[in-house]
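Lecture notes, part 5. Sequence design as translation. It can be helpful to think of inverse folding as translation between two languages: the language of shapes and the language of residues. The source text, in structure tokens, appears below.
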């Protein structure tokens, strides 16, 4: 599933190229997670002014409104000239005078939603509950600690929920907790300020590093320019069950938390 780094890598791979492009045509395939929310003709003739990201949403700023794109479980965007004919999994296409933006989404948990503005009711419903951006200065260790004090569930679950800090999904939550030496199952409220400071730093470091490495390509992620990510090659715990820890020589373990696999080192992450 694309997480924050993959969405940011996707954004960076086409934002400059599509900025200023005029929308010439829109094609919709099979239904995605949510309906588009406007007539496709309403988008034609508008200009794409830029691409921002909020959590795992991409926001395409148009003349009148914003197009929200979510990659869901298996979505990926491609942007380019002379793309091959649309395939069976290509469910949204924006033809512009700078190239074609195409969403390929085999599982169709992704979505493209038009909102008249970022303050509209629908935009607020989708974006309003998102936590702070982990790479922004608004993500502050002391506030994070205060918020974690109110949560009785496992720290990994709090990270995945995304309502305190957004975009830390399964891979990067496992990796950040390893880097901070924190067991994924510990109750969030039990973490001391010193440990929360380490986790705060680890989240930022892991996500920044993943963006630098082009994200993680586990099954089929690649950027909108068709480039695979390489972060998975340097993962410390994610996907490494039974292998030796890269720091000590203990074997990496995995467990299920909220129907997701969590990976950790029983020696480096004692409590
Ligand atoms: Zn270890």
């Amino acid at each position: 599933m694309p997480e924050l780094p993959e969405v940011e890598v996707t954004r960076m791979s086409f934002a400059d190229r599509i900025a200023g492009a005029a929308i010439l045509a829109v094609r919709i395939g099979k239904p995605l997670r949510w309906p588009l929310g406007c007539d496709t003709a309403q988008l034609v003739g508008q200009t794409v002014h830029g691409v921002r990201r909020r959590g795992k949403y991409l926001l395409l700023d148009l003349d009148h409104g914003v197009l929200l794109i979510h990659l869901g479980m298996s979505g990926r965007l491609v942007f380019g000239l002379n793309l091959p004919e649309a395939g069976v999994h290509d469910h949204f296409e924006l033809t512009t005078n700078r190239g074609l933006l195409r969403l390929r989404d085999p599982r169709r948990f992704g979505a493209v939603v038009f909102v008249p503005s970022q303050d509209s009711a629908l935009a607020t419903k989708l974006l309003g509950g998102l936590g702070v951006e982990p790479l922004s200065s608004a993500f502050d260790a002391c506030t994070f600690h205060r918020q974690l004090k109110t949560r009785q569930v496992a720290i990994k679950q709090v990270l995945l929920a995304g309502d305190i800090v957004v975009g830390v999904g399964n891979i990067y939550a496992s990796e950040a907790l390893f880097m901070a030496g924190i067991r994924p199952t510990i109750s969030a409220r039990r973490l001391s300020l010193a440990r929360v400071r380490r986790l705060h730093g680890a989240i930022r470091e892991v996500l920044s590093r993943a963006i630098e490495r082009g994200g993680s390509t586990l099954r089929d992620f690649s950027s909108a320019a068709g480039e695979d990510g390489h972060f998975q090659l340097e993962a410390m715990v994610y996907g490494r069950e039974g292998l030796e820890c890269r720091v000590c020589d203990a074997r990496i373990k995995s467990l299920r938390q909220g129907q997701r696999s969590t990976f950790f080192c029983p020696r480096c992450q004692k409590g």
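The translated text above is only one of many valid answers, since several sequences can fold into similar shapes. The longest helix spans residues 193-212.
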